Amino acid sequence: xxxxxxxxxxxxxxxxxxxxxxxxxxxxxxxxxxxxxxxxxxxxxxxxxxxxxxxxxxxxxxxxxxxxxxxxxxxxxxxxxxxxxxxxxxxxxxxxxxxxxxxxxxxxxxxxxxxxxxxxxxxxxxxxxxxxxxxxxxxxxxxxxxxxxxxxxxxxxxx
Length: 159
Known about the structure:
The protein is mostly helical. Helix content is 44%, strand content 11%.
């Protein structure tokens, strides 16, 4: 399967990767959660080229992950804000942060998460919405839809 085929896959993970799965896009989203809003700030804080940043911002806007809001007419300048779809990437960013803190850290964690309600520094984790128990990879089993299973079987038999 080529990267261009990801958006048409049955698997929503493949389709999500097609939208936000490259390192530059993830860094833009990280910066947005750190309240970065302006093009020049994204440039400085990510180290991206202006062309690449412009491409990624346009793609994220077209996909409904971010929205532009003008803050200057002359010259035209915009701030970028996460939409609801974009804010739903928070769990992805936190999961990457926690994985990086565990496996790639060389000193103290560079970012801590504080729960605004109680003021405590926390390590968010997944829990079962029914029983409230923590849930990890060993506590879950993937149940595939019939279309996804058929797609996987067909891919196994492609020469």
